Amino acid sequence: xxxxxxxxxxxxxxxxxxxxxxxxxxxxxxxxxxxxxxxxxxxxxxxxxxxxxxxxxxxxxxxxxxxxxxxxxxxxxxxxxxxxxxxxxxxxxxxxxxxxxxxxxxxxxxxxxxxxxxxxxxxxxxxxxxxxxxxxxxxxxxxxxxxxxxxxxxxxxxxxxxxxxxxxxxxxxxxxxxxxxxxxxxxxxxxxxxxxxxxxxxxxxxxxxxxxxxxxxxxxxxxxxxxxxxxxxxxxxxxxxxxxxxxxxxxxxxxxxxxxxxxxxxxxxxxxxxxxxxxxxxxxxxxxxxxxxxxxxxxxxxxxxxxxxxxxxxxxxxxxxxxxxxxxxxxxxxxxxxxxxxxxxxxxxxxxxxxxxxxxxxxxxxxxxxxxxxxxxxxxxxxxxxxxxxxxxxxxxxxxxxxxxxxxxxxxxxxxxxxxxxxxxxxxxxxxxxxxxxxxxxxxxxxxxxxxxxxxxxxxxxxxxxxxxxxxxxxxxxxxxxxxxxxxxxxxxxxxxxxxxxxxxxxxxxxxxxxxxxxxxxxxxxxxxxxxxxxxxxxxxxxxxxxxxxxxxxxxxxxxxxxxxxxxxxxxxxxxxxxxxxxxxxxxxxxxxxxxxxxxxxxxxxxxxxxxxxxxxxxxxxxxxxxxxxxxxxxxxxxxxxxxxxxxxxxxxxxxxx
Amino acid sequence: xxxxxxxxxxxxxxxxxxxxxxxxxxxxxxxxxxxxxxxxxxxxxxxxxxxxxxxxxxxxxxxxxxxxxxxxxxxxxxxxxxxxxxxxxxxxxxxxxxxxxxxxxxxxxxxxxxxxxxxxxxxxxxxxxxxxxxxxxxxxxxxxxxxxxxxxxxxxxxxxxxxxxxxxxxxxxxxxxxxxxxxx
Lengths: 658, 184
Fold this sequence. Notes:
Chain A is α+β, with helices and mostly antiparallel strands. Chain A has helices at residues 2-30, 33-62, 69-74, 81-86, 92-113, 119-143, 168-197, 202-233, 244-269, 273-296, 309-333, 348-378, 388-411, 419-443, 450-476, 481-487, 490-514, 618-636, 640-656; strands spanning 517-523, 528-531, 534-545, 549-560, 563-568, 571-575, 581-584, 586-588, 593-602, 608-616.
């Protein structure tokens, strides 16, 4: 009964979303303020209904209702409760429902927290989001109903959740990633509302910024979680594979990063208006495109659980309407946005523009690499596969250019900066950077490589510029350190965090890629493996039983020099239902290195194939993403976005004649 | 005036690019990546001269794959789908199916690590580091599996991982057929 109620709630939510789209727009057309206000209540109602539908599906999982086909496909009675709940988004139908649920959360968030928005702008924003929600819920109901029953002959027990997905990382990864993906719908809705109204000013950019940054922060976190999951669960120590699905999440991140930068310029100086609108459309379009690529079965990958042409056709139609429609609107209205202030060659505007060019080039490279095999095949150019070498060769130099620019961009002034004063500000950090580039590779164990040297030079550069700028900002008021610190704006601190986060990630990627130690060895219980200063003793291998699997568990003692470091328990699991073998690696995590042990195949005479990794600084990859997300939080909570909103509201009232 | 026209064309660009992209995606939807152009079926497996992964012979050539009907699996250690497929290959190898591997555009050390961890279902493994054999075969991506007969004719090509149903419905019947043909 409850799944039927959930299904009904979803149908109702779709209808409400339609109302949320049509009525406020009609209200704008007739200047009818009560119809305008309906968007808000519709948004909240829609949220409650989708939340109920989502809860109903979760209930079916918790109650082990295997007459619901989706539950039977994704769950099993032995599955622990936590994984039974995360199994809700373990497959196609459920993850789409999660998508719709998160869209309704963002919609309700806009309805509740942007009360200071002019009524017309709010009505347009909610209408656009309602249109997206209506289309998505229709897609769910028409092609991928999660509540479908398999009556009268339903299975006694479920087919179990894919063991790869039975991991703590997979409980949090999809919801947070989707928070990012779907969060760009807010920026998209603001862009479309701006195009419809034809009134894009600093206030518009300021309203849009916190939402965009929040989505971007979630997306950064979501991508990092996915990478961490791949590292800890896939069992061979990699953290990024250039898999089409990973690329699908990276593209909106790159476009979103470009967007938050160009938004800053639009807010502060009123430049790049059309470009900002286009980026907002692109960030969300790439999120939708990612959904299309994953869900349509156009690209094959581990992540792509579903291959169904009707679903693909439906999403393509949806893309055509949403993206095509908004780009059409853009083509018609963009030239009316106007208003470009002048700026010199050496100015922050120019730096942000260059940043955008580099980021969008990176996004195009990823898009091309992801779609090229497909295009080549269709155009009969032969079947070609694009792998990590392509992406690494093109994206590493781009990332290095971004780092160079980043240092300049942080200190260069708006409008015009003189070369002389800039050189005066930057020479000390530059010296420090060269010093880093020369010294760092010596301190790193391993070969003195040119590549390491370049990366550390750039990392030192950005770090030094940040520190110098931070100190000069504190000293500016001449009120002493603590008062200076207190007077710093949250948005400035947020920017520092995000940029340092990027640097931290770059260090992690460089060190983990260039200096990892990887050994595959034959080891019997009682034997010791020695490498560098590490001694790793394989004590025993014993059989254990988990809640839904049997496993062989190895016991390893790790010593560095004579000091005991850790006891590690890698496992080789066999899950009961699917009879899948899973390698559960054991990791001793540390700030400067991870020790990663995985059990391979049992060999004869009790020995095992054992895989041992020592990965320097690999945690930094994800720590950097955390810093970036923290930076986003700092900007979102900045008082300026609330205080100024109220002041500008008065102006806007007149503009919109409400 | 002219400037206005130019900026209008400029603003129309994103829409044009998107429509082009949609056109391709539509083609891609109707295009089955698992479909093998029938012209290739029955053709001889391409000739090659490439090193072996395990080092049991200095080089393998096409002749090393002949003698029995077999599966030729194209894999790489960087390919997550290959990991998912691997237990199936192990199971097939244990049930007596001859499987040859082509290690495609991979690092030899990584490939050896991979086999040490996941087990080795392959009778022989050819190293195609530069993807030259892959080009001759028209590899779309990894994993791909070819069914060849004892004389080295390609009977079937499967793109993507081998699931139980692919094995039972497509690959096994072809292998059984050509085994019977061999005995006659």
